[in-house]
Fold each of these.
Amino acid sequence: METIELLDLLKIKKVYGDIPSKVTGIQMDSRKVKQGNCFICVVGSNVDGHNFIEEAIRRGASLIVAEKQEVISGSACFVLVKNSVKVLSRFVQHFYCYPSSKLAIFGVTGTNGKTTVSHIIYNLLEANGRKSAASGTLGFRTNVITEPTQNTTSDILSSLNMMQRAIEQNCEAIVFETSSQGIINGRMWGIDLDIAIFTNLTHDHLDYHKTMEHYGYAKGLLFAQLGQDIAKEKFAVLNHDDPWAAAYSRMTPFETITYGLSEQADFYADQIEYRENGTVFLLHSPQDNYVVSTSFIGEFNVYNMLAAIAALYAYGLSVEDMLPYTADIQPAAGRMEKLSNSKGPAVYIDYSHTPDAIEKAINSLLPFKKKRLIVVIGSGNFRDRLKRPMMAEKASVADYVIITVNNPGKEPISGILKDFEKGMQHDRYVCIGDRAEAIRHAINLSTKDDIVLLTDKGHENTILIGSRYFPHSDKEIALEQVNLQF
């Protein structure tokens, strides 16, 4: 692309040096720079791209965009701007020819349920012959690609690359999980959403947002980012039963579609029958009433299914289009995932890492308890210490609780365990700092009639200890212990 074509997108800039005729690509990671690329210096939470300008030039960058005045060597052109992230979002959208305009874009936000709602939307689209893609905690996937992503919400350059690849595979839609940090840090800038979906808002990430009010309004930015061009058909899909839904509805001029268990919602469920291997409910919709069968358990998953159905109705699918496939969709990895074993206890792995999520996960299993419910909880890496005793309080409903860690990083393990202990409501618990040993202990003390719930880690296959990641899988450790013991 002509370099001047990109630079003309900016009104305020200072250019130093000779402008190269063309830009062969755009990068924010100096290790990925190739000859003729534009390197944009982004200040992240852990890494400052300005520190890697010289490396980018050595690798062939001919254009450097930065928001700090730097002295550089070599023949690269230097462009000083006010905000590198805004320039990055503008440049990559233009460079990739605005891929948002070629796809239906779903954005799912909320404290809990983002992964499951995205998972259901993706699978129902595919089942209806609508090729699609999804990006989030479980990675980036299409029907031919499955690869990891670094964050729940990827940086704008990675997201644009995903969209371009989805277009090349003739996808019609893409679903993005959108975290509050991702929204605040501009990772969704320039991505023109068609449907924004809100699941719920409960205590989490207050180490970052400080207050629930700030956290709530961070989520609300997603709905404001639907824009003001009402000539476009866009929708906000909101959980009617969550108090923040009304605020988010006021943040957008576009039509709001609600879901929930309240009869005032546009899509609501009643006559719910909770089963050990799934749920059946009566769906009331603007089209008609329908019996919906799913393989998901728990009330919170009724909400997740309703959110996905409402969002796809906004997209253009009829409820009748979706009904034949809802029962076939299996839970996403690490989301109330029941391990296959016929010998030992019923073992569930869930990503629940907030007080609300732990409470809902436990409540979904209690009706099927024969003997005991054993729960493993953990946290770490200086993440929102205030929620730890609250998580322990919710976990105290279980007959036995094992307190451990998850990605402790450089935070002292003893301090993590003590934070949790403050919230315990009984003395039927133990603290085990080694997570693998904590899982083995949970299986060891269980019987065939017990239920074991492993929370917080979900699908993850590494654990951060100190400054290094080590292989770790709750699922593999649990299955290995079950096979040894039973």
Amino acid sequence: MVMKMEKKYIFLDVDGTLYSSQIAGVPASARKAIDLARANGSKVFLCTGRSLAECSKYLNDPLDGFVFGAGAMVYAEHKRIYDRPLDPEDVLAIEHFLEENGFGWSLEGQAGAYVNEEAYEFLLPYFSAGKQPRSVMVQQMMDNGMYPAGYMDPQEKIYKICGFTTKIIDDMEPIRAKVDPKYSLLVTLKSESGTGCELNYKEITKATGIRRVLDFYGADWNDACAIGDSENDIPMIEACGTGIAMGNAFEHVKEKADFVTTDILDDGIWNAFRHIGVI
């Protein structure tokens, strides 16, 4: 007897959901789950805070589209259907805000992500599964579209800005309270290495990016499933018909989810796909 599979529009976060810094890659079970789900009629999209340049390694993967910059740039069926970079004056304002509050920064553009010295040193081991020879870590940064800030063309469009600090910040609210109301500040990384966050316009979220994809296909929120692990995933987890948190997700993200799957390296994507009936 052949089981009838559900057909869903599935939106996957990248860092902490699809990509593991512990292995500097994607678990084999996650890739297999994506292939099977698409073979069974579902459509699978990356819905990430990363820019297009930072996802170059995934552009030729068997996927149906992308939401980049946490909603700032959207592709469906190889067509760009939405594009909203930050205004240049806002790039400078956010950059200065992060510096004043002790963060290094990464300006995430279309051609690359441009990282100041503090953030560059923070990110080097992230893309190399820990400490490696510096030449290896630098190459891994370039392979993920990340370059020292001096390489940025002044005319480069920036879609989102990330901040990184080696400080472990348990309570981000005092810093968040100082942010201009037109921006949102979301925590994207907490580890023994420090804290990461991202800033963009408040009206741009992963949920608004997904809405544009669903409109492109004439689909409904009930047809959509979102899987993520950090604060920028909460809007899509709450908006989609099924919202799933990874086992390694922040606790307050798990509280928003309809289902909590296993950790990323414990077949988290595979088990999530099994839960929603697409494989």
Amino acid sequence: MIANSQRGVALLTILLLVVSITVVAGAMLASQKIAIRRSSLLFDQNQLLQDINTGQQLALTIIRADDELNDTDSMQDIWAQPLPPYTLDRHSIGIEVRDEAGRFNINNLYHHGAVDTAALAVFQQLLTQLNVEPDIAIAILDYQDTDSEVYQDGGDESVVYNQQSSGSVDKNLANQAFVSVDQLEEVKGVNAEVLALLRPYITVVPYYLPININTASPVLLAALIDGATSKQMQAVIDLREKQAFTSVDDVWQLPILSGLNEEQRKAITPLLAVDSQAFMALITASDNATVGQARQRFATIVISKMATDDERESSNNNNGRNDNNSANNATNDDKNKTPKDIKVVTQRLWAFRPVF
């Protein structure tokens, strides 16, 4: 009897050991699966970030290639055409490019330590075109200028302009250049509805950005002239679709603009260009998963395209040459064209596709 009891205890002990080993093995297997899954997710995330960097280089290549083809930027250029996704194994990279100079840069209102009165007038006329209170332009200017007074001695900003009542405003961002269009919601008078109206026509670039007449919308072009309408500016759109303007002087010959006097033209000319000094690219990286939902990451980058110091000096020298040598100089300039300094100045990652 005792022997049978001992055998029973031994069998029970063995069973308990087997169960314990099974539980431990199952836990280890589950933990291993979790670790493998985590490693796989990390690998995919790292791969998507690498794809974002690849997309950034592809966008730079597109802008550089276009710069070698012509001296203007228009909707006929290669950067403006739809680009098919680039496929890399199980991953794909999508790129969309837009000309930021086709919009009004709100940082143009205040630059080099001073208010740009011509840019302010254009922005107020843009707000009027959109049926938005034009005094909002003053609030936006005061948000970014470096003093604490309302423009033209309108009083203490802290009294006149209480920020939006959300209480979430970062005071460190006030009295300096904007870094995002979304910051406008922190400015008095700009709510979500107003921002939605403004968003297609404005941008934020960290330096002065002339408006490209080859890509600006009829609404923005109409804002250049007091009393003009977007319908009247359709003539400009029709002409540039046939051939891009190669000089700002070309637009002064148009009937809608021919009535401007010399002083008005002189005020507007510095605001305009026929090329762009800034582009924005939206990069979409996808893992193209065949099982489950495909993972995606998004990034927006601002690409600057600025003349190098050597190119500026060369341009100044060319302007000083006499007319007898102009044809030869133009030929030499084409042969020895110096590429502009094209680089990424800002990058922002997004979990979801942003408004573009």
Amino acid sequence: MAVGGVEEVLAEAKNFFEEQFKLSPTVAVCAPGRVNLIGEHTDYNDGFVFPMALELVTVIVGRKSDGDVCRIVTCARGVDEPNMITFPVPTPNNPLNPGKPAWANYVKGVIANFPAQVPAFDAVIATSVPLGGGVSSSASLEVASYTFLEQLTGKVEKDLKVKALACQKAEHDFAKMPCGIMDQFISVMGKKGNALLLDCRSMDAKLVPLTNPELVILVTNSNVKHELTGSEYPTRRKQCETAAAALGKPSLREVTMEELEANKGKLEDIVFCRARHVVGEIQRTTKAAAAIEKEDYKTFGKLMVESHNSLRDDYEVSCEELDLLVKLALEVDGVYGSRMTGGGFGGCTVTLVKRSSVDALIKHIQAGYDNKATCVVTSPGDGAKALSL
């Protein structure tokens, strides 16, 4: 399945806005979801990640309104009801607070962290980023919200790191998810034709070209989301912090595999396994980015598979469905590598495959997965931007 363009999502948002508010929007923006090629659960450990922006996007359209109320409607499918929120223009004496519905917290958190007074406005959200699919629909929504407020107020943040960090803070404070910085960073900074090697400790980012026309990325959504996600993520993060503290380090980024093995006796078995994944994954990620630069796709694919196995066995965030999708992908000629991507317990896999083999790959996955997977063929896309109406 090819990716629907930004234009289709924009048209949906614009039509919905005109139906809801009987006016035309004056501002339109988009921000992409992302797929992480390798480097999972390393971002909150000060490690390296290697994501790329997708051609799947969240679009927000809207306009200033005459009243003193903000109205936001989403036409995204699968969000909790209600699909519309209304609240007074926030002020220091009347700030926004998190609440129900859950989807609105991502937007409200960004408004609360925006550095300028937000006027009354009406807005519609539309998206092609699958919700809960491990391709960062939340960061896509946050970054689109920030970009929308920039266009609405005229206060455009020149420092993209500041913008990404404000969106991350929104997720911490309002959605109560202690995420790392990767998702917001790539949604802000993505560049067409490039993946991004991001050092989550220094915040330095390096674009790495991924433009070989004979290759594509296949993102396969398992279309399952196990309920473990919300509780297990903070647990994993705590286990990593415990391991680093026991080794006298500020984070697992500072730990070598030799140090970890030598100090195994200081850690509970489960904490050791969590740390072994993170330390190994940080090493795999820098090697993988170097392999892409050399166009050594065989090595990159091998590292993808090692990453998946580590996430399955040491970090225990995979599930039967993701394991099956990876197994099916690796059975097809022309596939370099495949792995789960995102937080885990469902969501998506990412596969590096020759363009000439992608049709056979999709057919094999659908046959082996009972036609329940959604496959998207994609290439690295652009980060957040304003759109013309």
